[in-house]
Amino acid sequence: MTVEDHQKQQVAGARRLSVSEIVSALCRFGLAAVWIAAGFSKLGKTVAESQAIAAYEIFTPEWSLFLAKIIGPVEIAGGVILLLGIFIRQSAKVSSWVLILFIVGIAQAWYRGLVIDCGCFGQTEITDGGMSYAWTILRDVAFLAMSVWLVYRPFTRFALHP
């Protein structure tokens, strides 16, 4: 093998992504899309979001309104930070904690027999049994797994900050 062939082989190998990097990229860009979509679905819907938050019967009406005002922009900001690759590990840690809080909130509402709309991706029509609590929790557990993966294996290619 010539030196030129060896250099070509090294360059080709450097361009390939490992399975770990592919999973990390899917987690990073997938979570960014989820947070951005969830945030945009809440913009301009402060009253509806406040009612969705109040339905959990955890917060006072004042706190529900405050959270409804900030949750959409905060979710969008978190998604953009992941998309740009700024502080990926730290963003993934925040994402993990937020998802844990969402899971606990939904689980306690389910346990208490509350019929609510989680408000996760904007308002949906509430049926007689309410939302699918198990499905919503499983979805959030999947997002939590993606966040935890990024804490340990951040995908830093195409990132503004490694």
Automatic annotation (TrEMBL):
Pfam families: MauE. Its main location: membrane. It is found in: Membrane. The chain crosses the membrane at residues 25-43, 63-87, 94-111, 131-152. Keywords: Membrane, Transmembrane, Transmembrane helix. Residues 21-152 form the Methylamine utilisation protein MauE domain. It is a multi-pass membrane protein. This is Membrane protein YphA (DoxX/SURF4 family). It comes from Corynebacterium felinum.
